[in-house]
Amino acid sequence: MTWTELLNTYINSEPGILAVVMRLACAMLVGLVIGTEREYTHRPAGMRTHILVALGACAVSILGEYIIMHYNTNSDPARLSAQVVTGVGFLGAGTIMREGVNVKGLTTAASVWAVACLGIAAGFGHYALAITGMVLILLTLTVFEWLQGFMFRGGHRQYYILESSDIAVTLTLINEVAAREQGDVSEFSAETTAQGHRIVFRAKFGGRHRKKHRDQFFSALAGAEQTLSLHISEEAVQAGL
What we know:
The chain is α+β, with helices and mostly antiparallel strands. It has helices spanning 3-11, 17-40, 47-71, 79-93, 106-123, 127-141, 143-151, 167-180, 210-222, 236-239, and strands spanning 97-99, 102-104, 158-164, 183-192, 197-205, 227-233. The protein has 2 domains: 3-150, no CATH class; 153-239, 2-Layer Sandwich (Alpha-Beta Plaits). It has 10 helices and 6 strands; from the N terminus they run ααααββαααβαββαβα. The termini are far apart.
């Protein structure tokens, strides 16, 4: 038996101190890497949250294995881990926020859930699965985000500057039309002017028919009775923000 085989046998045998430490360290690494990416992009759940989820899931997996080995029960060692997968969904739901017609935080909720699953893998000693999963999740959150932006660059956000005589009616109209045209509106700001009210907001339209939806959105707002003027700006400075 070579030294690598001996080491693997020792590490993956009954979860002794070294095995426990290595499994927890692997889970912590997974949570650290994924959580750092979420922290860097200013998402609701960051580094510490992801680390704690991964460590907790890993500890539950180790505990399940320990119970089976030391109490000679016939139960499934994955039963405790199954509860983690279900329970972490409630934590992920806490990262999802609704802003008007927009829903944000779904990707972070998915990353929390995925980190819990990888923590379980590390807890059972499947290091290759945990590390490979970590790398693929990181690629999904970084490279594929860039790729998505490149492929759908036509759906970039634009600033809308609207002069209105009735701000309440206009805000309601903006949300209603955006929902109908599958638009994503955000970053509202408003100020009183001599003519009425000046509203600035961002809007994004994605998908294959984004230009059609964007044009219909613009037409609906421009044709509204309370709209005094409406134009689009590509830059925040030009929009007065």
